[in-house]
Design goal:
Blueprint: H1 15-25, H2 57-66, H3 69-72, H4 92-110, H5 114-123, H6 132-147, H7 153-164, H8 171-178, E1 188-190, H9 197-210, H10 212-215, H11 223-237, H12 239-247, H13 263-279, E2 284-286, H14 289-307, H15 310-314, H16 318-337, H17 343-357, H18 369-379, H19 382-392
Antiparallel strand pairs: 1-2
């Protein structure tokens, strides 16, 4: 399978890279740039989270994440396409697993810490709003109007892992999550100098305060975080094309490279091999110029022919954005007025408080009502959001397109 826009990307390692990977994999040569389990940095140094042979530090992180209710909900959140009667379309729960798989393939060849890679990948979208990037955009808009702060799913994902579920996840995992942003592709990814909890907290605070201006400059503190960041794009750039074809938004001959849905298989092989080829033995993660330009080209084409398609955008008309704002106002009013029979109390505050109580912690929802509204709205699955909207505003049902299986 050949891509006419990147004929040099064969998916095969050079003899030099192949020999280096063989040393790392077969001879178990230690990669000096990998993150050791013993370096795991946590807010609380408890016996419960100590590194053991059976459960190394970052294995614990991955397991903590997978057992969170917020992880379960990813199966009910849009990846790209909403309101589709097609069970084969990717949901966000599958996407995080695909990212983990791609990142583990790269990390395995480079001799990196696969458990840290998996933890970052599984947690990277756990704070995502319902309805994909449209929902993120609508929630950010109303939150910013009220507070001057910014909502981005990578920053909220850290809050979910670190605050709402209080599981003492390592700073390395949290750092990889906040730095994963797949909207800002880079040919070379270098690690930051971050090495303490306070530095991480300052970085997260900057993201809430400055939004995009801070997020676009983030760099992971580990090579494992760098791998997940590039793997996020590799995992979706071809998969979204397959889903677009399944959803009827595109056809096999829609895309300029002529590969159609097969672009996904090509991308997984070609990009993974290219990243390994240009990263093995180095202290940074890199792609060739050819691979980087092809990734950027493919993303641009996806925006033109999938994400920007009138049918996709038409699912979220102005009424939908207004509904996000109305729900935000209603939930905030329920909080301020202390209406304990309201859904935000029954389905969110009591639930999170009970969870945190198991770990001797409390949910400080009263000091920042706007942030609590964000916690609640971003935690929703697509179906729950629609059910709540219809419960509060019955006329809102007309805003939700419904496509039947038959």
């Amino acid at each position: 399978m050949t891509n006419p826009y990147a004929p040099g990307l064969t998916g095969v390692l050079s003899p030099r890279a192949n020999a280096m990977v063989a040393d790392l994999v077969e001879q178990r040569v230690k990669n000096p740039y990998a993150t050791p389990n013993g370096a795991a940095l946590r807010r609380e140094q408890s016996d419960r989270d100590r590194d053991t042979l059976l459960r190394p530090a970052f294995v614990r992180d991955a397991e903590k994440i997978m057992h969170m209710p917020a992880y379960n909900r990813l199966a009910g959140k849009t990846q790209v396409f909403s309101f589709r009667a097609n069970d084969d379309l990717t949901r966000r729960g599958l996407h995080v697993q695909l990212v983990a798989r791609v990142a583990r393939d790269i990390g395995y060849a480079l001799g990196l810490n696969l458990d840290l890679i998996e933890a970052i990948a599984l947690g990277h979208d756990i704070g995502h709003a319902p309805f994909g990037h449209a929902g993120e955009r609508f929630l950010n808009s109303v939150f910013h109007q009220h507070t001057g702060r910014w909502f981005y799913h990578n920053v909220q994902s850290v809050r979910v892992l670190d605050v709402l579920y209080g599981r003492n996840v390592s700073i390395q995992t949290l750092d990889g999550v906040i730095c994963h942003n797949g909207e800002f592709e880079q040919q070379v990814l270098r690690t930051s100098t971050l090495d303490d909890v306070q530095g991480f907290d300052d970085m997260a605070a900057e993201c809430w305060a400055r939004g995009d201006e801070a997020i676009r400059h983030l760099a992971p503190m580990t090579l494992e975080g760098c791998v997940v960041r590039v793997s996020d794009i590799i995992a979706y750039v071809g998969k979204d094309r397959q889903d677009a074809i399944r959803a009827g938004i595109a056809q096999e001959d829609t895309f300029d490279d002529g590969l159609g849905g097969a672009y996904n298989a090509w991308a997984l092989k070609a990009f993974v091999a290219d990243v390994v080829e240009h990263s093995v033995g180095n202290s940074r993660i890199a792609m060739s110029e050819e691979a980087f330009e092809e990734m950027r080209r493919a993303k641009r084409e996806n925006y033109e022919k999938i994400y920007g398609a009138s049918e996709v955008n038409g699912e979220f008309n102005r009424g939908f954005e207004d509904l996000f704002a109305r729900l935000y106002e209603r939930v905030r009013d329920d909080l301020v007025e202390g209406r304990e029979e309201a859904p935000v109390f029954r389905h969110h505050i009591r639930y999170v408080s009970q969870w945190l109580g198991h770990y001797g912690q409390t949910y400080d929802w009263e000091s920042d009502p706007d942030l609590t509204v964000v916690d609640y709205l971003s935690s929703m699955t697509d179906d729950y959001f629609m059910a709540l909207a219809a419960h509060l505003y019955p006329q809102a049902r007309r805003l939700f397109p419904r496509r039947e299986h038959f």
